[in-house]
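Form 7-S
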Amino acid sequence: MSAPTHAPAPGHTPSHVPSPSAAPSSGPTAAELLDFALRTAADPAVVDSLPLDPEGRTWIRLEGPGGSEAWLIGWPPGTGTGWHDHAESRGAFATARGRLTEHSLSVRLPSEGWQSLELADGVDRTRTLAGGAGRGFGEHHVHEVLNESGTEHAVSVHAYYPPLPLIRRYSRSGPVLTLEQVERPADWQ
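Output:
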């Protein structure tokens, strides 16, 4: 495990796992990543190992199943990821403590060849994940995760397979989603 860092971490209601899509055929499935995230989030020794910072998110890299990339992340009150996706990686996250809100899009966006898109009505989804709840997702899942509490830290476990090749960050103004930045692993490891 590496030392905690105080900067944006890679990204990530009842449990939900999407039906299989064009995800890579090897490695853990979204359901297996979710199972790992839920089991790890329920382990007090792992969760207690994360130092919490009142100013910024902290994280520790974990050993994920089957060659996946995994993170334990601390969320001070009022922090979030901003809109992003995990490219060709499928993933899952589970809340260990506190409550996280996920805003996501129910449509698959083109993976490249665009800078700005106007989203159709009805594509927004919101889920609240209290301690013990999690969510799995497929490739190109666009979302933002927030700790909307004004007073309580949240802690969560995230896992991705294949390990994140990149994260695309977006801005959102009403129905318009704009690609702002592409981050590579060297940017967050």
